[in-house]
Design a protein that fits this description.
Pfam families: NusG. Keywords: Transcription. InterPro entries: NGN-like_dom (IPR006645), NGN_dom_sf (IPR036735). This is NusG-like N-terminal domain-containing protein. This protein has 160 residues and is an alpha+beta fold. The protein folds into 2 domains: 114 residues, Alpha-Beta Plaits (2-Layer Sandwich); 43 residues, no CATH class. Helices cover 26% and strands 22% of the residues. The chain is built from 5 helices and 6 strands. The strands form 2 sheets. The chain has a 4-stranded antiparallel sheet with strand order 2-5-1-6, sandwiched between helices. A two-stranded antiparallel sheet has the order 3-4.
Length: 160
């Protein structure tokens, strides 16, 4: 549904607390109900049986950020949903739209993806990461491996 120019965004952003391990189930159910969700996943390398593979887990444990149009959407009856974060009153706490936009931009940049930090000729960076580095929006040090950062003299915290 398109909104007219100057009309405020009908979505109000909230954070939901899930039962342990139910973040993905809650996100999927919200998406089936056409509720806009943000669930940042952290990707990392895992080694099992001498094989290296990519593993994922939610960055924010037991938390799903969602945008709800209160006029016609509802989260009632979602399995795995414990509660919605409340503010100082009994009403749900509203998250600033700019913070949600910033979180989505950070996900697109690959800031939570440790697998992007290791680029090889046969596995180049994704096009968005290469574009951001070319434009100067993302410093080249952001995609260095720990070995590259150590060789450049950076401390661990700067390379992480």
């Amino acid at each position: 549904m398109a909104q007219a120019a100057g009309e405020p965004n009908p979505l109000r952003w909230h954070a939901a607390v899930t039962f342990p391990g139910c973040e993905i189930k809650v996100r999927d159910e919200m998406q089936r109900r056409e509720i806009d969700t943000v669930l940042p996943m952290i990707r990392f390398w895992r080694i099992r049986s001498r094989q290296r593979f990519v593993a994922e887990r939610p960055l924010l444990a037991r938390t799903v950020v969602f945008g709800l149009d209160h006029s016609f959407q509802s989260i009632a009856g979602i399995e795995g949903l414990e509660r919605v974060v409340r503010g100082a009153s009994l009403a749900w706490a509203d998250l600033p739209e700019d913070d949600v936009f910033d979180l989505r931009l950070r996900i697109l940049r690959g800031e939570f993806d440790a697998t992007l930090r290791q680029s090889h000729p046969e596995r180049p960076w994704p096009r968005l990461i290469a574009y951001l580095i070319r434009n100067g929006d993302l410093p080249p040090q952001a995609v260095w491996t720990h070995r590259q950062a150590k060789a450049a003299g950076l401390k661990f915290a700067a390379a992480a």
